[in-house]
Write a structure and sequence with these properties.
The chain is α+β, with helices and mostly antiparallel strands and 405 residues long. Helix content is 28%, strand content 31%. The longest helix is centred in the C-terminal third of the chain and has 20 residues, at 294-313.
């Protein structure tokens, strides 16, 4: 029995259960949603070579919207994934011929490379995709043999917590544009997937992350094209670049580690000014973040834990969460926004404000989230991009190493 037949059978059982067998329970919304997603997984698994585009708008707190696009696909020679922001390609990943290669805009001297064995999702994990909140798209996961659990995990888009199926809505009869909708919930947000009622491939997605004034939303549509992706599977030009093992290494490769930190000024939540020269004599951890940056939320939890350890250690160490790149009218609004965010997420840690984005620029636009560690002489000693693995133990070890020097 094919996937579509299963869906139709479930629908029939749902309609006739009360008449045919009063004791027979109709399929639950979760069961129907799972059946629909399984039909989608099988549709991609049987699709052969294809190319798909997911175009969406990212809506930040305050209403600012920015266009984003993912292009990806699979063919006989391998798979690819390309990310776009504001119409410009920001990252390209190609996996073929036993290797996965990744390029990122701004990292002009390096590229990521690791072995590839026909599983894009596994290869992305190998080069730090989890920490960079980057996963293989659901269609590619299914096409490469991923099971239902892997397909469901791919629907997290690298940022949602584990998903559970919360609702199901069949396509409305008589409406040719109606979709089959599956609602999914996570601890940090929700996702509604719209499936084509004939092919059961992905057609729409609506994502909500967080809640209240700090909620980030994304909504967009999919376009599927059958056939080999062709030139998109060609390995990019790598001349003049050196290979690194992970995305974190890619971002760190061009960072000025060992150089004096810039002299900058921050503001505190109570309006005071703090200058970087005041940090001399201490190891300093700066966690750059923004209220709208979803990956930053998890990083801040670790930074809060690190700050608590520092507070009880008695060591000459300072930890600050540096809020930056906020869309606000001025310092007062930024303070209100940050204070509201910290209360909502029950975070207790020292916070500094980069009210005019000059601090972020002075530190070479390190990305969000990112950690910069300064030694006691005021030099840039370490740089970490994204949410690093075993973050607190790793940072504690690096801090203690710097204190010995």
């Amino acid at each position: 029995m094919n996937a579509l037949c299963r869906i139709l059978l479930l629908a029939a059982v749902s309609l006739l259960a009360s008449d045919l067998a009063p004791a027979m329970a109709a399929p639950s919304a979760a069961e129907q949603g799972r059946a629909a997603l399984e039909a989608s997984r099988l549709a991609y698994q049987k699709a052969g070579a294809f190319r798909e585009t997911f175009e969406f708008a990212l809506e930040m707190p305050g209403g600012r919207r920015t266009p984003r696009k993912w292009e990806y696909g699979v063919g006989k020679s391998g798979a690819f994934l390309a990310l776009f922001a504001d119409g410009r390609e920001t990252m390209r990943i190609v996996a073929r011929d036993g290797r996965i290669v990744g390029l990122q805009i701004g990292a002009d001297k390096h590229y990521v490379e690791a072995p590839y064995q026909g599983d894009l999702a596994a290869a992305l994990r190998r080069i730090g995709g989890d920490e960079a909140h980057l996963t293989a798209p659901p269609g590619v996961v299914a096409a490469q043999g991923g099971d239902f659990a892997a397909f469901l995990s791919a629907l997290r888009f690298g940022i949602l917590e584990p998903l559970e199926i919360a609702g199901f809505q069949p396509a409305a009869a008589g409406n040719p544009s109606a979709l089959v909708n599956v609602e999914l919930r996570a601890a940090n947000g929700s996702l509604t997937i719209g499936l084509d009622p004939t092919s059961y491939r992905l057609r729409e997605a609506v994502i909500a992350l967080g809640s209240g004034a700090q909620q980030v939303r994304a909504a967009g549509s999919y376009r599927f094209v059958a056939g080999d992706p062709g030139a998109a599977l060609a390995l990019p030009a790598l001349a003049g670049r050196a290979a690194v093992e992970t995305f974190a290494d890619l971002n760190a490769g061009d960072y000025p580690v060992g150089q004096p930190a810039p002299k900058v000024a921050f503001q505190t939540l109570d309006g005071k000014t703090v200058r970087s020269e005041e940090f001399l004599g201490s190891v300093v951890v700066l966690d750059f973040w923004a209220t709208w940056c979803v990956p930053c939320w998890k990083a801040l939890e670790h930074t809060s834990e690190l700050a608590a350890w520092v507070k009880t250690s008695g060591l000459p160490v300072k930890v600050f969460a540096v809020d930056t790149l906020e869309e606000v009218s001025g310092p007062d609004e930024q303070r209100r926004k940050v204070d509201e965010f910290l209360r909502a997420r029950k975070l207790d840690l020292p916070v500094l404000l980069d009210v005019d984005r000059k601090v972020f620029a002075a530190f070479h636009n390190p990305g969000l989230p990112s950690l910069v560690i300064l030694d006691r002489e005021g030099r840039i000693a370490r740089y970490h991009s994204d949410v690093i693995k075993d973050m607190v133990p790793t940072l504690r070890g690096e801090i203690q190493e710097l204190l010995k020097k």
